[in-house]
Design a protein that fits this description.
With 81 residues, the protein is an all-alpha fold. The chain has 2 helices and no strands. The chain is extended and about 60 Å long.
């Protein structure tokens, strides 16, 4: 076992507000669809991430006064007009 070096400085930085907002949106989306993110299949994770990304983008657009149409489409799917 390697000896512990007491002279090493460990620096922790707090999570940014933007990251916390994204995580809140992801966890809210997981709860909404009944998905346990850490034990979910790759398909379920991709789905909740896509929904959360879209919802997060819409909230950010509204907060910044930008058109919601600028938000990346869900799974790249565009609506037919």
């Amino acid at each position: 076992m390697k000896p512990y070096d007491k002279d090493i400085d460990i620096v922790f930085s707090p999570i940014s507000d933007e990251t916390m907002s994204w995580l809140d949106e992801l966890l809210t989306t997981c709860k909404r669809f009944g998905v346990d993110y850490y034990n979910a299949s790759e398909k379920d994770r991709a789905f909740v991430e896509a929904v959360a990304r879209k919802n997060y983008g819409i909230k950010q657009a509204k907060m910044n006064g930008v058109s919601v149409s600028t938000v990346e489409p869900f799974f790249g799917i565009h609506r037919a007009v």
